[in-house]
Design a protein that fits this description.
By secondary structure, this protein is an all-alpha fold. It has 20 helices and 3 strands.
Length: 505
């Protein structure tokens, strides 16, 4: 028996390898560097790894190949845009994570225990969050470029497992944070099982685990259609769980609320980008010729998701839970781009993902600034009059809410207009109508928060807005500028995506 060594294109794989290398260095820092020096060292290594990965990605921006890792990954225009978006969001998220006020003193300590009290008195800070973030980013970079189902599953687990841990690292409300981590882990494991069932059924249908092999079987009609339907259904459950689509959304509000706000922003933005990147590749490549097997179900899920998220968000009094249900609604809007199954659908989805991801991270960054003596204040009633106490902070948060609502001159308006246009062109009139109505409902609770901040009298309850650290301020400023620029001058990015985005089949 002759062993053939794998042939790898390290230039194409460089961004992922750099991130993994940075994560390994971060683990070594935890083992060998003194506690006092760990934070600065971890922050430096993390930012250096992310910037170096972005630079390596730029050098390969015109590459198009399926041979980088024995046809298990594909580098094309869509992959470049998705990976670039993930890296930009990860850099901004690292700025937020650098504010150690968000994280527990000792992750392993039981909430309320003597060990935890002693760690708080010593003012300890966890720094393991940096290598965990890099491992998650590595999975997010691999997830949307995977072209076989085994690689796709490995990437799914690599991006998910660190997030399960990071969700339980909140400095305050420790029991809620640990509950969030446990729910996320259990439901995530459950969805992974469905994903594996889908892989098995699709292999049984096509005799292949590659997206191209499945596509050829669909075109040839050589397999058992029941296996195809079951495979699409089970695989979709695992993917839709990651984006929080109804009815696979139950984890989102609790995890968003319980996790450290910096981690919530990171997972809300970057995870959605990576997951939708994978969904677009799978449906546009493997299942493109089987649209009548999955499109009706996905239309229903999209309509229910955007409607449910918008309606339930109205009743929320916690700002993080409100943003969680808003995220569910946006998942429904993004599914409209998948349903379109066209070049315009792909282009609009990629633009929407970039615009939404940046704005989401900015919104959660602002949430970290509203605090009292016990930490962050998420109760919307206590945000009353925030615009009078801190006009700039309230104005920036209002900007992000307006872009979520899709108000003109914001990036959200351009994103929604383009993605609804793609849905209309594809004949998905029901999705278009539901999207417009859901956007109108969503605008109500976004504007309600703005009215609460600017037109209500401040409540003397000890709530204040802290001065952001330099890195947090940079993250918020970049997010705000990008939101405005893409709302006023979207053409350069839209044109770039139109000429660049494509999938290799």
């Amino acid at each position: 028996m002759v062993f053939n060594a794998p042939v790898l294109n390290y230039a194409h794989l460089a961004p992922i390898l750099i991130i993994l290398g940075g994560a390994v260095i971060g683990v070594l820092i935890e083992a060998f560097i003194s506690r006092a020096a760990r934070h600065n060292a971890q922050l430096f290594v993390s930012l250096l790894s992310l910037v170096a990965a972005f630079a390596a990605l730029m050098t390969n921006r015109k590459a198009a190949s399926v041979d980088a890792a024995m046809q298990s990954v594909a580098f094309d225009g869509a992959a470049f845009i998705i990976q670039a978006t993930v890296l930009v969001i990860a850099i901004l998220a690292t700025f937020l994570i650098a504010d150690q006020e968000n994280f527990t003193a000792l992750a392993a300590a039981i909430p309320g225990s003597q060990e935890e009290r002693e760690s708080l008195q010593k003012d300890l800070r966890v720094t393991e969050v940096y290598p965990l973030t890099l491992f998650a980013v590595a999975g997010m970079l691999l997830f949307p470029i995977a072209t076989d189902l085994i690689t796709l599953f490995v990437a799914l687990e690599v991006l998910s497992l660190p997030l399960y841990l990071m969700a339980g690292l909140s400095r305050r409300r420790r029991l809620m944070s640990q509950e969030a981590a446990l729910k996320y882990f259990l439901l995530g494991a459950f969805s992974s099982a469905f994903f594996l069932f889908g892989v098995a059924y699709l292999y049984g249908y096509s005799g292949s685990i590659t997206l191209s092999g499945i596509q050829q079987s669909v075109v040839g009609g050589s397999g058992n259609d029941i296996f195809l339907l079951l495979g699409i259904a089970f695989l979709s459950v695992g993917l839709l769980f990651k984006v929080g689509a109804v009815p696979f959304h139950a984890w989102s509000p609790d995890v968003y609320q319980g996790a450290p706000t910096a981690i919530t922003g990171f997972m809300a933005a970057a995870t959605k980008v990576a997951a939708f990147g994978a969904i677009l590749r799978i449906y546009y490549v493997a299942f493109a010729n089987a649209e009548w097997q999955w499109r009706p179900a996905l239309v229903i899920i999209a309509i229910v998701t955007m409607t449910f998220g918008s309606v339930v968000a109205i009743t929320q009094r916690d700002v993080k839970r409100m943003l969680a249900y808003s995220s569910i609604a946006h998942a429904g809007f993004l599914l409209a781009g998948v349903i379109a199954l066209s070049k315009s659908g792909l282009d609009s989805s990629l633009f929407y993902l970039f615009a939404y991801g940046i704005a989401t991270l900015g919104a959660f960054a602002v949430v970290t600034l509203v605090r009292d003596a016990a930490g962050e204040v998420a109760d919307l009633n206590r945000w009353s009059g925030l615009g009078k106490r801190s006009p700039l902070t309230a104005a920036v948060f209002a900007l992000f809410l307006l872009t979520f609502a899709g108000i003109p001159l914001t990036s959200g308006f351009i994103g929604k207009f383009s993605i609804f246009s793609a849905a209309y062109q594809s004949g998905s009139t029901a999705v278009l109508i539901a999207g417009v109505l859901s956007s109108a409902i969503a605008a109500f609770f976004y504007i309600r928060v703005i009215v609460l901040m600017f037109f209500k009298d401040p409540v003397e309850d000890g709530t204040s807005v802290v001065l952001p650290s330099a890195l947090t301020a940079i993250s918020i400023a970049i997010a705000a500028v990008v939101t405005i620029v893409l709302g006023v001058f979207p053409a350069p990015l839209l044109n770039f995506i139109e000429t660049t985005a494509f999938f290799i089949r």
